[in-house]
Sequence to fold (303 residues):
Amino acid sequence: MIFHRVLAAVDPLFPGEPDADRFDQQLRLLKRWFDILPLPDAVAALREGRLPARALAITFDDGYADNCTVALPVLQRHALPATFFIATGFLDGGRMWNDTVIETVRSCALPEIDLTVLGLGICRLGSIVERRAAIATLLAKLKYLPPREREDRVEKLAELCGSALPGALMLTSDQILQMRAAGMTIGAHTIHHPILARLSDADAREEIAGGKEWLERLLGERVALFAYPNGKPCRDYLSTHVRMARELGFDAAFSTAHGTASTGEDTFEIPRFTPWDRTPFRYGLRMAQNLARREVVTATRSG
Fold:
């Protein structure tokens, strides 16, 4: 399973993002349906062909502060393990580019913003629905731009809107240590969360290795697991990056392709999935549909 955030309360802009109560309900369902394992144990069992029936592991990507302040207490209440894949470049007061876009639109006082000078068109912000649509449009237009060009446009977007932006969305180093002390696993997720497929091989390797090394210095232990940013095979990462993850000494790596992992499959492209439905029936149905998907497209199969 892959999560990103667990909010303290429902966010009208992102009603699909779980809050603490909904995350608690989801964990209750998952405990009833699955044998939830620590991810390192699940990887070892998968490689050795001894996974128990209905094995499942819980993971989080990126490194949001609410992973510690909101999600961790719920996990502890259920005595469940999780792995947190951390993009190290945003810790201790940083902010990911997509969150700059989201928070800019959220706090903008204007009913409409003209972003044609940035090649982003005109966005209407008169209602929650329009703001939600504006965020989706802006993220889609910016996501696959070269990193420096994207950062430049995002900064100018915030300037044009005059928005006040939060500075504590991401984890601190101390919070990572707190989660590790609570028995959670910490994994690597690059430094700046780039689309690896859009980088040179040298830059991609630096991103993967640098995130791993930073976490190992902080934790004083080996970091053995890696998640590809965005994580779609052949689009966000390539076979080159799978090879890099092996060469850099990880035990396994994870995509965001739908499907399930089976014995004999590549443990450097393990799929992950999260159903987003609110009712237990539809949540369970979405899980069942994912479990039925046996063929997973991988970067290595596609060269």
User: Anything to note?
Assistant: The mean pLDDT is 93. The first helix runs from residue 20 to 33. Strands lie at 2-3, 35-36, 55-56, 59-62, 83-86, 112-114, 122-124, 185-188, 225-227, 252-254. The chain has ten helices and ten strands.
